[in-house]
Design brief:
By secondary structure, the protein is an alpha/beta fold. It has a domain of 179 residues: NAD(P)-binding Rossmann-like Domain (Rossmann fold, 3-Layer(aba) Sandwich). Helices cover 40% and strands 18% of the residues. Helix 2 packs across helix 3, helix 3 runs parallel beside helix 4 and helix 8 packs across helix 9. The relative contact order is 0.13. This is NAD-dependent epimerase/dehydratase family protein.
Amino acid sequence: MASQLVLGAGLIGGTVARRLAARGDQVTLGTRRGSTVPGATALKIDASNPAAVTQAARGADTIFVCTNPPYTDWATDWPPIFDAVITAARDSGAALVLMGNLYAYGPPAGPMTEHSQLATSEKKGLVRKAGWEKALAAHERGELRVTEVRASDYFGPGAAGRSTHLGGSFFEPLLASKTARVVGEPDLEHSWSFLPDIATTLIAAADHTGEWGRAWHVPSTSLSRVEIARQVNESWDVKGRVAPIPQWLLKALGTVIPIMREVSASSYQFRVPFVIDAMETQRMLGVSATPWDEALRIAVNSYREPTSGK
């Protein structure tokens, strides 16, 4: 029986833990509060504590890092977490699977592949870039095995919050035939990663018997928010619309609301086409995106009937 340590019990970590437990793995779910899911053993742990994470990883085949510090605290919270999980993987022998994103690429000139240059100059992107490069350096020294799964903006049941661009603040106004206010240009193509597909890719990456020390992209669907709104209107018989938040207003909000300052800093992702290419991941890991119509139906219905996503 495989033994797995999952750090973080949010929308991604909780789903990964449930999936692993359902297939028969022995799963420990580590969080600050001792949260758990059916089939997993709860463990109260500080993911930035190297000794605690190393002890929890003893005997584990894999450490899944699905923690998600507050958007405003990445610069302070992520570096010690990276240090702790790298130490734990090195000292325990567990493989290290990092849940990542696209911030480290910076503004793209075209579709981003698993081998695109990490060229960001934005603060949050630099934090993620530094963490990945530190883990990769340890891998290249032969101290551990590491891989990172990178998703675009996620959507699906439970997705909410100011930094979630295709969550409740988008779908709920549409379903009420009102206007969804969005960051950036709503008619530009953007990639969206369905939460269940993120979990599928993380587990497939952990099971991969080939090359490590590399990134994988979550197979995703690329559509503009104008087109998504049109589909919602057509399928749910509503009359919602999408309108951009003026850039000046976004910056002004950032002066008084810290999380909006961080949203503004990364809003370049919505001022140009922001598209993920996951063909290599699909071919080598055998995963694919959930058909868009199905994923959209599940996501939208979770806001119409909140209990349907649980």
